[in-house]
Design brief:
By secondary structure, the chain is α/β, with parallel strands linked by helices. It contains 22 helices and 19 strands. The strands form four sheets. A seven-stranded parallel beta sheet has the order 7-8-6-9-10-5-13, with helices on both faces. The protein has a six-stranded parallel beta sheet with strand order 14-19-18-15-17-16, sandwiched between helices. A four-stranded mixed beta sheet has the order 3-2-1-4.
Length: 582
């Protein structure tokens, strides 16, 4: 018996059948339109095609494209079986060689992406999503790779490729409009080549708008870092990203917070990474969402159930630190670039400029004045740097705490604390700094240990010898930096000590402006990035003073940012001879 006909038109199945069968089909396919009609329309995704084939066993119909139906259904069966074997541990992920070996769970993400054709990787912060993302870029089949990231991240990605895949030809796109990616006969740009485009191109979301058509011509693998930026389909950024993504063979999106419970937004993120995986937009809204109030976006009806579906279908992969802690080192130090408000630093003028000039002067008669100027200048610039990046530090910490990770946040200046307290007031932060009395500090520690607060703000040079924090916390964040490596070691030691059951993460949040770049270089933060164990015997002696050479470098960089360049020459007599001798 034949109950109707099914036709494939473009990317959709159109189904004509009897009214009572259409009613049954609507119950089986909640994605299908529910209004009255003489036919049903269903997107021709592999999942829908597999279920449609099953439905036709009960209600046989004439199909105009039976081979396509069989192929799409078989593709979904094959994908599901391969994912089940991989995620169920029945086979190990395929090895991909890097200069520093990837962890198994990072290899698993790359394997999963290949099986599904795309992946939303939503691992916890600190689990190395960057490495997971760059693994497939080492494969010739997926080159050129295009990495799209926030404006402050290209240098971080370039550094990751240099560290893990130094043999790849990597180019950071420098302008918002296209220019040749191969070197002409008179060009000598070190990161361009005469024969073919680079293996990897790194660009920001904003620059991508001018490059989409160019990159879409040859991109085989697209990586979208902080991919929640793809949630607005009407934006130029989304249109550019979707253009590149749909022309790539594989796509991976990286974000620990890819969803804000607005189903409408989440659809567009997934659809850019795995086109058609959630059906079309109307199908998705009908199946997974409830309508918002007037003017509001539709929300997920059951976000937990939706997350389970995404993981089962291989659309999203999310691991927590608890899931993978056996593969993590005891201590990870991670340098993470954050944005800063340059206007705050631009307001440093007048006194700061004069102080910088005094520091760079070469007149021994002003030695005492230079020492005083050095201290004042250091405090001014470090405070301004802390204030400039404070809102962005607060957002990073919020991400951690809202992912149920208690955090000890280290800083130094009261002005910075004030911004953090205001921005993070909803998290009930407690304070342990030089301004609190003994009983107040004890109460802050008690509240943190009792779980009444998951955020303890501590001064960089407070709390020596404090014990017990390791019982509830394994994450530290340096929202401001100290010149002394020993101070940071002491701070990390508040949680990295006997009794700690979990791997410890220490985040150094570094801006690209102000004092941070020079302090980070002095500390060796960028060299440490640190997947492991620091060298024995280092960092054990606290450095009380800032060396003259570092302050002179800072003063020179500060004046240079204002167009006043002074040559950096060694002073005849050091400001701190005791340091020079050591």
């Amino acid at each position: 018996m034949n109950f109707g006909r099914v036709e494939l038109r473009g990317q959709d199945w159109f189904i004509w059948t009897e009214p009572h069968i259409r009613a049954r089909l609507k119950r089986v396919f909640p994605r299908a339109p529910q209004q009255a009609s003489d036919h049903q329309r269903l997107s021709a995704s592999p999942e829908n095609s597999r279920e449609l084939k099953w439905f036709l066993e009960r209600y046989p119909m004439e199909v105009n494209a039976p081979d396509q139906l069989d192929a799409l259904a078989a593709a979904h069966v094959d994908m599901e079986e391969r994912l089940a074997e991989l995620l169920g541990g029945k086979r190990s992920p395929r090895e991909i060689a890097l200069a520093e070996p990837a962890r198994d769970y990072q290899l698993l993400a790359a394997d999963s992406c290949q099986i599904r054709g795309g992946l939303l990787l939503a691992d916890d912060v600190g689990l190395g999503k960057t490495v997971s993302g760059l693994l497939l870029a080492t494969k010739a089949d997926y080159q050129p790779t295009v990495v799209v990231c926030p404006a402050h991240m290209p240098s971080q990605w370039a550094g990751a490729f240099a560290r893990f895949a130094p043999g790849l030809r990597v180019h950071r796109i420098r302008k918002g409009s296209p220019y040749p990616l191969t070197r002409g006969p008179k060009q000598r740009l070190a990161d361009l080549w005469p024969d073919s485009p680079p293996d990897v191109l790194i660009t920001s979301y904003h620059k991508l708008r001018g490059w989409a058509e160019t990159l879409g011509e040859f991109c085989r693998y697209a990586v979208f870092d902080e991919c929640q930026q793809l949630r607005s389909p009407s934006s130029d950024i989304y249109r550019a990203a979707a253009y590149v993504a749909r022309r790539a063979t594989l796509r991976m999106g990286l974000s620990a917070t890819p969803i804000y419970n607005y189903g409408a937004e989440f659809f567009w993120v997934v659809d850019a990474l795995i086109p058609g995986a959630l059906g079309n937009y109307d199908e998705f809204i009908r199946e997974w969402c409830i309508a918002g109030m007037s003017g509001e976006k539709a929300r997920l009806a059951d976000s937990e159930q939706f997350g389970t579906y995404l993981r089962r279908e291989g659309i999203m992969l999310r691991r927590t630190r608890a899931d993978v802690k056996r593969e993590l080192p005891d201590l990870q130090k991670i340098e993470h670039t954050v944005e800063s408000d340059t206007k705050v630093l631009e307001q440093l003028s007048g006194n700061a400029v004069e102080l910088a000039r005094v520091i760079l002067a070469h007149n021994e008669r002003f030695r005492g004045e230079k020492m005083k100027a050095a201290g004042e200048f250091d405090n001014l610039v470090r405070q301004a740097t802390g204030v400039a990046k404070a809102p962005y530090v607060a957002e990073f910490v919020r991400l951690l705490v809202e992912n149920n990770q208690p955090v000890v946040l280290f800083g130094w200046h009261r002005e910075v604390y004030g911004i953090w307290l205001e921005a993070l007031a909803g998290l009930n932060p407690v304070m342990y700094t030089g301004s609190e009395s003994g009983p107040q500090k004890d109460e802050a520690k008690r509240a943190f240990l009792a779980g009444e607060s998951k955020l303890l703000i501590m001064s960089l040079r407070s709390g020596a010898g404090v014990d017990g924090l390791q019982e509830v916390c394994s994450t530290t964040v340096f929202g401001e930096l100290d010149w002394s490596p020993g101070v940071h070691e002491q701070c990390i030691g508040r949680v990295h000590r006997d009794g700690q059951a979990d791997p410890v993460l220490a985040y150094y949040l570094v801006s690209e402006d102000g004092s941070d770049p020079i302090i980070a270089d002095v500390l060796g933060v960028k060299r440490e990035q640190i997947e492991g164990v620091r060298n024995p015997g280092q960092g054990m002696i606290e450095r009380i003073h800032t060396g003259e050479s570092e302050l002179r470098r800072l003063a020179q960089a500060f004046l240079a940012s204002r167009g006043e360049v002074k040559p950096l020459q060694p002073a005849a007599t050091p400001l701190f001879p005791e340091l020079e001798e050591s």
